[in-house]
Amino acid sequence: MQAASAALAADAVVRAGGTVRAALPLIHAVAATLDAAQLQALRGARTALGIFPDATVTASSVRGTLPETYYPSEVAAQQLQVGGITGTGVTVAVVDSGLWNQQGPDQRAPGQFASRVLAEYDVVAASAQPVGTQAWGGLTSFATTASSTTINDPYGHGTHVTSIIASSGVATTGNFQGVAPGVNLVAVRVLDANGVGSYSNVIEGIDWVIANKARYNIRVMNLSLSAPPQSFYWQDPLNQAVMAAWQAGIVVVVAAGNRGPNPMTVGVPGNVPYVITVGAVTDNYHPLQPSRYSLASFSSTGPTYEGFVKPEVVGMGGHILAYAPDNGTLAREFPQWVDLPYDDFTMSGTSMAAAVTSGVVALMLEASPSLQPDDVKCRLMSSADPAVKSDGTLAYTVFQQGAGLVNAHDAVYSSARGCANQGLNVAYDLLGWQHYGGRANYDPSTGEYYIMATTQGSGSSSGGLLGGLGGLIGSIGTTVSVVPIVGPVLGQLLWGVAQLGDGLLWNGSYTAGSGYTWSSGYTWSSGYTWSSGYTWSSGYTWSSGYPWSSGTTSSAGYTGIDVVRQQ
What we know:
The protein is elongated, with a radius of gyration of 28 Å. By secondary structure, the protein is α/β, with parallel strands linked by helices. A hairpin with a 4-residue loop joins strand 16 and strand 17. The protein contains 15 helices and 24 strands. The strands form eight sheets. Strands 3, 4, 5, 6, 7, 8, 9, 10 and 11 form a nine-stranded mixed beta sheet that branches. A three-stranded antiparallel beta sheet has the order 20-22-21, with no helix packed on it.
């Protein structure tokens, strides 16, 4: 009840026989309880009164109806969201199996009415057409705006990955379901209804992303797909496309693959030294209890065949719940993982871990838009949390966990620069002027992998393990005669054959105690300075150390879908 003053409003209520419940002097009103007759009497009074029903209000975006996903909190993204950092203004391109067009939490950012899906591009549909009917220069006849319904996700994987990155759905806890709910999206379909795609499809999709980078402000590209390596990283066509995207200023986040736990199982394009390759961690169904987290047994591990440490980081990737089609191939094949009555689905894999990390990168770029890909990689790695045992030593080697579990909060507020891709030059690599080897090597006497050190300025190798405080020492970009790569079987050449598919010979011969000796003068690169105070190169022993394998097998929901088959 509103009048010229709160006192006059209260007096009117009392004279009508009603009850004043609260004074509201701020608006010259009172809250009152009135029956129908009393209300009618007030409406007939000569005093100027404003009568408004005490309507029900509900909290806006404080409590939702959807299930809690936990992973935004487990990588410290939720506290950034509360502070207003949600990825707004950053566009993420998801190169996958498409995006479900139903008006769900991927279509709109919080508080927005227009679709934040800026474009969708269907390479699968384009590649099915005769060459003469294609619109070259981007196949524009198959690129659509968000209002189109011609592009969808019959498989379901692409929508799941996109939802991990960007879902604006609000859980009953009040938390967003996605890591970066404010981002804009571009969906690029390169995988068919069975989750399979060709090299050419993926490369076409990447080419389209690069061509449209400026138009849609694409800053991040997520590739939750993998294939077995068949050549050196620089010879692989898909890897070349990924390197071109990195050179164009796009932060490329790639799944390590699901062929773990054995070493040297990181797939293409995760074996590219420049990009951010992500392994998987599971919380073992104990969310927000870091002491219960462990490396997922399926997570592919390094080093690469060229001696680089991979993955760079790990993200949450075990039994990940996210919005996905309820009628897609995955939902039909694995109905037990559909979270009824919601359109949510549970999957495990490095695909999911890569998506979590792409969301973190988007948060970083909203906070610091000027960051270049190498800067993002540096800050992401230097702020990650490595798994350690109770005695302070690493629970997993650098080849298993990289720098550790991504931490969105610390990455956003990091000021680190110049610590990633040291000694690497992507332009030279693409031109064929210079290729690179990492410092990982294999000790046949122990069966372990380690990181070799170099003497400053000498270009010579040292077979000893690096100390934790020293990091990777030695001049960057020094041409050396020992390139630290060797297969897991002593004396065996790459993949057990002497000649690669493209006719190039594996240019090396094994010398006991010193790895493969290369005669072509490739350049050594640190890639990243592992100087966080840990002994990062303490070997690669699977038979002892931290017990991590429980609860991370296929029973966690892994469906084995992170494979791009060459057709």
